[in-house]
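Batch 3, record 17
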Amino acid sequence: MVKEEMETMVLNNIAIRARNLYIGYDEGEKILWALNGIDIDIPNNTAYCIVGESGSGKTTFGNAVVGLLPPYVVTKGYLEIYNNRVIDNDRLNYSGIRGDIAVRIPQNPIASLNPYLKIESIFLDILKHHFKSISRKKAFEIALEAIRSVGLSDDVLNKYPHQLSGGMSQRVAIALAIAINPEIIVADEPTSNLDAYLKGAVLNLLKSIISKGKTLIVITHDILFASALCNFIAVMFMGSILEIGRAVDILTNPLHPYTKELIDAANLSYTNFKHFDNELRNNSKGCVYASRCPYYFDKCIEKPKMYYINQYNGAACWRIQKSL
Amino acid sequence: MNSYVKRYSYRVKSPIRVFLGLLRFNRKFLIGFTIVLTISILSVIGLISPPYYLEGWGIVTEDAMKRQGLAPCIPFNCPSIYHLFGTDDMGRDLLSRILVGAHLALIQMVSVIITSIALGILMGVIAGYSNIYIEKIFTYVMELFIIIPSMVLAAAFITIIGRGMQSVILALILTWSPWYARLTYILVRQLRELDFIRICEAMGFPRTYIMFRHIVPNVAPLIFVEAITDSSSVLVEITSINFLIGAASLTSIDLPDWGMIVGYGVRYIRTFWWISFFPGLFIAVTAFGLILLGDGLSEYISPWLKRRWRLWF
Amino acid sequence: MLTLNYIIRRLATAFAIVIGILVLTYILIYLSPGNPAYTWAGRPRGPKAEEAIKMAENELGLNKPLYIQIYIHVNRFFSGDWGLSLRFKQPIIVVITRNLIASLELLIISFSIAVPIGIFLGVISALYRGYLIDKILYLISSLFISFPRFWIAIIFSVLLQSLGINIFGRIAPDYTLSINYVTGSYIIDSLINGRIDIFIDVLIRIIPPSLIVALYPTALTIRVIRFSLSEKLHEEYVKQAISFGLPRNKIVYKYALRGIIPAVSQLQGITFAYSIIDAATVENIFNREGIGSAIVKAIPYNDYPLIIGLLAVTGILFIIINTISDIIQVVSDPRVRI
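Prediction for the assembled complex:
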């Protein structure tokens, strides 16, 4: 029900726009680039998934949206959130973003709650900052409402974080994010640490968030989970986006070989899954996927640009341009 | 794939290369090491041939009696170049006493630290592997000895055993080894949870084998680095106790430990101020060098502490 | 309820350690080379030596079996009869109380200076790690740890003397008889008596020594807070709090600093025991009374009963401090509590 309605909405408002974004970490002797030239437009009121394996830079992108980049970060290009330039070449300006516009749902929920405070104190802290002046009673009501909407009982508010189980604390984290009511919610691998039943519960919760009209960015490594939840999927590998498109199109007709690999691995059809290790002479400038690509040919020494085949779907691969 | 392999391959460095690398790149280690090396060389000189050998050890020679209370060598007003730091009230040359005191200080400190580490690691490892009753007794005894202040214990030993380095060293060993024993005990308990120890236990290796082949090599470097940082506090503690003994002694002292010289010189502070000043200066510099050395080493072991970081939110 | 359980168990352990200290002091007497009575009597020489040794033998009860000796010894301590000090010719309990209160005064004032300054500078050092202010604070804290406090005290006292300020002793001599001693602590007594001039005089005399004794705890606190706070600021819950947009001060103080209370309180407990040495040397130099001067006067006279009494008392004092710090550690962390 939800997906068709989303697609017919006018996707004019762009919530997040990034152009030529490079983000790297300064390790002292060298810089470790996590994002290598990202161009992305995330529209308003959609569920956008970023899929990739570990080390692909998706967590860095999530942190960049929320404002959690550490102080030793090096940036190039620009990132805009609702037309505010948050990252502008090497200046970072997150005033007004953290906690008001963008909030993160963490990967490890128990560790993300302050172990020295009860849950209600955490709610109070957050709400007091968000609403500038709010009475204790009102804040308590909002907290109760948020807790009930994620399906937890009222006495959770009186407990300490270490008394909650993994699923409960993940839901508390989502409740905290709901209570602030931000425009953008970034969910950083929300189900990696949970079992299958809790995966389903969190999936439903996230769907209900979308129905309230927010922009949800889900970072995950599980492409099937992404396809069940989101409208759009972006596939990342070693800091570059390899494919962008609508979820249905990507699953049925993947353009990029890496996407095909991910879908095959997720479907557990290993017959098509082979590991390639190509020799490269000049791998810093070329396609990032070249060393594992089964269709590697000589044009892949040059880095391909994103090539769109229709309004939503595109891939960064020379093969697409060649065949079409 | 190749870039992954190149990024994550390590080469195990030999200790000499590690040491030279530390000297070149780690400034704290470099300064600390030069200071400690200088003091060690001075202490060897003090042991073998200080300028005035007999006076260094405290014996008042006839030459000494002629030059009682000579002031130290102030620039532009140097009475005699041979008495760089002057002489004390009985005429003994202060420089030689300081040099002899250097080697005494180093011997005291090194014997306390090494014995404490050895005893501490032994007791901690054994306690970490024993049954619950021995552990309770162990924690009880450790806490008992950590609580007792070293100074009063040293005073008790002096009264029992007699004056000399032994009482102070014994008191300090009894106070410091339980500290290292407790640290090793905590580390051993943490190590026992790790998989590689559990595998050894499950495979039925004898306990002594696990203890000495697996646990001690993991615990010893950490304790050793901590001990070097603690050694400056140990040095200050030893000299403070000796200071009190020197301040309490009614007759002139013979053993030229730095703290004792300072303690003895307190009564002459208005006239012969240099007796108390220079040995204290040497204690300060040595302890400073030791603490820099220890911090440089611990920076090497935990390199993430070096990264610059400021409050960014 | 787990907290109460833990506190009771901890107090029981503390009491057991107190008994252990007393037993230990007796073992020290018993194990001394030669005749223990000889040591207990203070190594007497001269004509009355034999009498003194015989008296000591009776006091110690050397003819009875060992466990009865220990029992007598422990009983004597609890009943308050600690023997006579050979040097001061007064009951030991009087001597020790007088000196102990003087040293405690000094230590408490030093720690109340050291802990707030240490926490303040340590937080700055952790928040700007690697920058100039941190390097300066690191240098200062290393200097404070490595410079011997007695040496600094000597320099300081010479400086003050050359400026003409006379701050030796605990109280100016002409005031000594003007107040009645209730607690033995001049600060409290002068306030009780209402004599503000004595109070100011005593306060001026206690400030330089307490500044010097405060050097070591300040430096250690700066180092420990710098290390622990840097670690805490990288934890997940702090990052999540940043993402929720909480203000900077609240995150640093309510979230990160709350986590290092156990480490800091444990450090203060241990440092209190170490600082007794600094306090002793500083008392000696500034000519105050206290545990240090008591020991200094006891050693040349071989006043063994006094030393044993001091050992027991300081041990008990430090057990109390350690137990308090342990209880603070447990109470401040809900994960252990509930």
